[in-house]
Write a structure and sequence with these properties.
With about 400 residues, this protein is α/β, with parallel strands linked by helices. It is built from 14 helices and nine strands. The protein is elongated and about 125 Å long. The chain starts with 6 loop residues before the first helix and ends with a helix.
Length: about 400
């Protein structure tokens, strides 16, 4: 007979592919666990989505104009807008230059120690009313203000103690904190308000009226939500910051600290010490050499005895347990049929180009069995139950015994 058999063809027909998307059902407890995990994950995602939608989009930093927390300044910004002042919030040094060039604008700089030095130096020629909140000596010098820091005292409430109309209208307000006084140049003629009891020449609010007006504020509680409702604070803050129709609130980004060019954020690599680059280079060279050493060409494989001997029956039993645990009756049946077809093909001398149906027909002719029954046993559909798998094994064993006789 010219018909021959190819073992790959036998494997393909004996183990027909399952329908697309079909999976063997797991045990009931496994399905329950999967359902529980899916429900919990869905509830977590739903809770996170509800929280994100319900949470107001506000900041959380100190003196942040978008923050509704006690240390934020959102309440003052709302008061300013209610009085017709257009408030703009910026957080990057690149946006400061445009605001500083507008003579009809007030530029408030909170936490000026975090602003790039070049940005502060550019404020020396600003046309806007400059308000610095709790600056240090370096910040004052960079901004070109003839004001000097005079130390720090505990916070409290004081009377204006000056002839400035804004402070006089506000009356007693929060004071203390950082103190400032006139500088050494004597060209700005600053007005010191809310003076210290020990040194009347220094106070928590200093107003200059030189070539461009400026306000140095040493008590930041005037701007915070938690203290705005205290007597005098709202009136003083509104009078100091609401003199122009437009106000820009500049909250510096700490990552821009130390930028060499105004408006350009310093990269993180610029904050690293110099030796870090050389250390990184050395580590890279060492890693490359290690990869070359470990990736060198290996010699031929050397066999060695196994530490233990595993009986074939144990391997067979372990594989059977895996099939049973994961519901793999169809795969086990395909394995039985493939092995039987290969043994029968060798017995009937069928070559590698044969057809599995040819083997089934030869078996039927040699044993006198019904051809359709033999084909159903050797080439039938997948088995999905343990009883069907046992019955298939018995039928294959009976066929092979008949062939041997």
């Amino acid at each position: 007979m010219s018909a021959t058999l190819a073992q790959p063809q036998i494997a393909d027909i004996a183990a027909p592919p399952s329908p697309e998307g079909a999976t063997a059902p797991g045990p009931p407890d496994r399905r329950r666990r999967r359902l529980f995990v899916a429900v919990v994950a869905g509830l977590v995602v739903l809770a996170a989505l509800i929280t994100a939608l319900a949470t107001p989009r506000t900041g959380s930093g100190d003196l942040d104009p978008d923050s509704a927390e006690p240390a934020g300044s959102r309440a003052l910004v709302q008061v300013l807008r209610a009085h017709g002042v257009a408030v703009q919030v910026i957080r990057h040094a690149a946006d400061v230059a445009h605001a500083a060039a507008d003579p009809g604008r007030t530029l408030v700089v909170v936490q000026p120690q975090l602003a790039p030095l070049s940005t502060l130096q550019a404020l020396d020629s600003t046309s806007a009313v400059l308000v610095l909140v709790q600056p240090d000596g370096v910040t004052l010098d960079a901004a070109g203000l003839d004001v000097r820091a005079r130390g720090e005292v505990p916070a409290g409430t004081l009377a204006p103690g000056c002839a400035d109309p804004t402070a006089a209208r506000a009356g007693t307000a929060a004071a203390g904190g950082q103190l400032f006084g006139p500088g050494d140049r004597g060209d700005a003629h600053p007005v010191v308000c809310y003076p210290d009891a020990q040194d009347p020449t220094s106070g928590s609010v200093v107003l200059t009226s030189g070539r461009r007006p400026a306000v140095v504020l040493g008590q930041a509680d005037l701007l915070r939500n938690a203290h705005l409702a205290e007597p005098g604070n709202a009136a003083l803050a509104l009078g100091l910051l609401g003199t122009r129709p437009r106000l820009t609130w500049y909250l510096p980004d700490p990552l821009e600290l130390g930028s060499g060019t105004a408006g350009q954020a310093q990269p993180l690599s610029g904050l690293l010490p110099t030796w870090v680059r050389w250390l990184t280079l050395q580590l890279g060279i060492a890693a490359g050499l290690a990869m070359l050493w470990r990736g060198r060409r290996l010699g031929r494989l050397v066999t060695e005895p196994l530490p233990v001997v595993v009986r074939a029956a144990q391997t067979q039993e372990g594989r059977a347990r895996l099939y049973r645990e994961f519901g793999g009756q169809d795969r086990a049946a395909a394995t039985l049929r493939t092995a039987a077809l290969r043994r029968l093909a060798r017995r009937f001398s069928v070559g590698p180009d044969g057809d599995p149906q040819t083997v089934a027909d030869l078996v039927a002719a040699a044993t006198g069995r019904d051809t359709a029954a033999v084909r159903a046993t050797l080439l039938g559909p997948p088995v999905t139950t343990d009883a069907g798998l046992v019955r298939l094994a018995d039928e294959i064993d009976a066929i092979e015994q008949d062939v041997s006789r």
